[in-house]
Amino acid sequence: MTDPLPRALGAKRDAKLRSMGGRAAGVEATLVDRARSGDRLAFEELVRRHADRLYAVILRFTADDDEAQEVTQETFLRAWRSIGNFEGRSRFFTWIYRIGINEAKRRAARRAPEPVLSLDDEPVPEAPDWSEAPQTRFEQSELREVLERAVRALPVEYRAPLILRDVEGLSTAEAAEVVELGEAAFKSRLHRARLAVRRAVDEHLAGAKR
Amino acid sequence: MIRRFLERRRYMREHRFTHAHLSAYLDKGLDEAEARRVEEHASICPQCKRVLATLRRTLTGLRELHGEPKVDVADGVIEALRKRS
User: Fold this and answer.
1) Fold designation for A137-209
2) Which of B23, B47, B61 sits opposite A147 (nearest CB)?
3) Is the pLDDT at A182 greater than 80, yes or no?
């Protein structure tokens, strides 16, 4: 029989976390309301809360750090100019992410096309088994590098769902809202993106084995 | 022969179902019966078993890419906001 006490403590902790999350959402809604009525200090607080994460997302769409900083800056400037139009139907960060990703995509479209990861999902011959967690720091950093490269090589319409859901940890509903897709279409794109990234690791390891 | 044909057809149907639902399975987005279909097929299909295991590892690896950015961008954004408004 399981001990009911840890379960009760777990439930208490979950309730506390939910209540903290609720309070944080309440504070954010107040900041958004104040910013909408022209309070720049409230908007600056929203910048402090979201700029670093937005930058981390944008970085995976841009050519370099400088461009990512420019896009992040441009995103918040646009948001400040149009916050009066933000109706609060979505959460503030999903609105900001949407502006930022669209701006990053717009700039990416102006650059020379980069090699794009194939979404074909044929099995890769001679790919070794890598399902276990890497044993050494070298293997760990190699896997990280291959994944980073594969994510950046995904077509942008597949990259955004994967970054938002799997790297940033947004829920499916939140991430689908950012990229303005219905949940079914979002899940389908996410699945294809995940399979393509998985296959890229297979290809890398099969190449290394040969 | 007919039995073998039907078995093969069933296997391929389960193969397509499993392949299409691996992400949903890992996200715990399937109901009990659907999750069982994926598990049963993956237990007898070496290809699906391998893709499932490496896809699981891919998701763990992707989560590990989440890190704090090395630069603090908020101050630069706030400075630009103050200059331009």
Assistant:
1) Arc Repressor Mutant, subunit A (1.10.10)
2) B61
3) yes
